[in-house]
Amino acid sequence: MTSSAQETALACIDGIQPLLSAWTRTIFDFGETAWREYQSAAWYVERLKREGFSVEEGSGGMPTAFCAHWTNGDGPTVGMYAEYDAVPGNCQDAATVKRPRPGLSVEAGGHTDPHSGLGIGSLGGLLAAKAAMLEHGIKGTLRFTGEPAEKVRGSKPIHAAKGYYDGLAGMISFHPFYMLPLCNTARWDTHCGAAYAMIYRFVCDEPEHWARAAGDSAPIPQAHSAVRAPGANDALMMMYMASKALRDSMLTHQGGWSISEAILTAGQATADNLPASLSEIQYMIRVPTIAMAEQVTAVLDRNAEAAARMSGCRYERHWVSKSRPGLANHAMAGITYAALSTVGAPQWSEEARAIAREVQVNAGGEATENPFIDELERLISPQEAEAILRRDLPPSQVNSTSDDYTDMSWHAPTSRFYVARPALRSANGHVYPAWVMNALGGISATIDPMVTCASKTVALTALRLLEDKTARDGAMDEFVARTGGGVGGSNWIAPLCDYEPPINFRWPEYVTTPRGRDWWIPAASTA
Fold this sequence. Notes:
Number of helices: 12
Mean pLDDT: 94
Strand order of the largest sheet: 1-2-4-3-5-11-6
Structural class: alpha+beta
């Protein structure tokens, strides 16, 4: 049963739904990637200030992060957050055909999860909770953080280490559904695991020491006939291949762990008769435990050292992320799932279904009467989802998959819930290309049901924490018990972040040139 304040919040979201839809499309069209979300962060900061929030810009030393507060008197503080980073190489228009956003190539950034809807879904809940607090005189504070670079698990370990999640009665974490059975539910016991991400930089700054001919050294070492140092590109390639070759020997073949890599810089794009002076490769390790992350890091360190020595270079390791595995809180999960149950699973209109059928055909499939998978429009309890999730996991594995909300869970009772995003059923075994889900995440008729449902769930959860002291205390008591005394307790895992924000690397981004604003890899039409 909803309180009067909760009814006010639900009505508020219905009233601002057209705005939420337009805002979602705005962030979708920005399509900015990790550590370079300048327009997206500025949009949120301006919006929050207009809504009466005090905003710290560049929180935690991250230019595209922020921390906003709104207070209605002494009372508990509830946390929510926005993500807004997109993914390079996924530029897709909000259209029923495969095409990049106007003026860009497919190599530009695009929203895949989509974080555009994630952030606005949380923002809608924030604004509705504020409206209800004002109308009904509810005391307390709302904290809303802007979290850049989620795709590299970037901001949350830094915010956590710098105290931005301290003092919360509860943290509400929303994510669009991305894998069954986690659709329209909350996580129960098995939360996401740990992750380490780092950049290995190879530097060839003393190539003259590579070869030393006896008595007949060329007066110009760079001559075409002279022996030349291999350079940083060679080091990077050896690092890449050695790590691929040794992947099966890094950890045991269980636990659902993974490692992936991305080359950020390779020789400054030169092809002159000179050794490449600089190269950089990023690794992301997703594992259930910190000990597993440390083991893989040790292997990568050895590979980097060997590659550097073989190529006459030196290497540096720079941290991008060191994040902890998640901590469960049944009380918070129950509060949030009760809110989601009150709202109900999202429902798609006939307009949305018609759009989805058009996408089915344009993606090489066949139009079906109901183009969406069945699970999108129904709830599944946290306990039932947990039981299904555990079928594929060994009993000893506590954490599974990857997301950096986990760092919040060690500072406040945290709920992690999922709302269905539009996803097409696979008819006759047809596999849809990635652009399909990206497009459905930007088309208003298909993504709005998720955003509205998430906003209402966030608002109801926040107000329950503010109004219901018994529920709030229950979540905190469980947090204290699980951590062995709360923050600093005997079972508490302290922040792992011992590095500065990795903002000064060659992260993919949009650039302004005489051609105008473009992706750093120009579109063919503007090259």
